[in-house]
Amino acid sequence: xxxxxTLRKVMAVIAGTVAAAAIAxxxxxxxxxxxxxxxxxxxxxxxxxQGEFPWMVRLSMGCGGAMYADNLVLTAxxxxxxxxxxxxxxATYGAVDLQSSSRVTRTSKYVYRNPGYSTSAGGDWxxxxxxxxITGAAKLPIATSTxxxxxxxxxxxxxxxxxxxxQQRYLLKAxxxxxxxxxxxxxxxxxxxxxxxxxxxxxxxxxTCQGDSGGPMFRRDNANNWxxxxxxxxxxxxxxxxxxxxxxxxxxxxxxxxxxARELGA
Length: 266
Fold this sequence. Notes:
2 domains, Trypsin, serine-type endopeptidase activity, globular, Thrombin, subunit H
């Protein structure tokens, strides 16, 4: 269940009690993930402020992403069809309101889809090369070690705020706690623990959802800077009890991502 069709990774912000926001992708744009499940939107979240997460990107196929370099967006492999020249994707950057006159848009030029994604190796990541760079764009650094693969994470996106709901005009945000591989393998026996990381609440209520696929899961590092630890990948429904969201584990994939990014001019 990738986070494109039934995208379930709905991000929610917890303020005393669970308050969540959802990011969803149209089912028509969705593609099944590595386990045949579908991706999320932010459920149980709240609106993000303009400039709060300046590196967030909305992709026209109904996915999220984050600026990796002036000319590259990091997203999920299941959001794209394959590797090669591609001018069909529009990336929207620089505004929490997708209809804002201040938004910046670029079309795609080339897409690289991790070839191991659909194999036992896994790794749900892809890079979208833009037709021209967004000079000076804010970037979200990626985790290069497991040091930040625990604790409480932030999720954000324009996906559905409820399972099966509509995509959002405004960026939503939420927080979700780390779930151990051992616990996550109960609902997801085929979890690829070497390249996937789970987060969510036992009671549900906060998660990513349809349309949030490809967006980042992130937290503060020891210097209080944001660092990306996950990529919205898949989950069962959106914010269901005992079904956390599953994310590509960026720390395990960072070397491959960086190497390909250098080839693409980062």
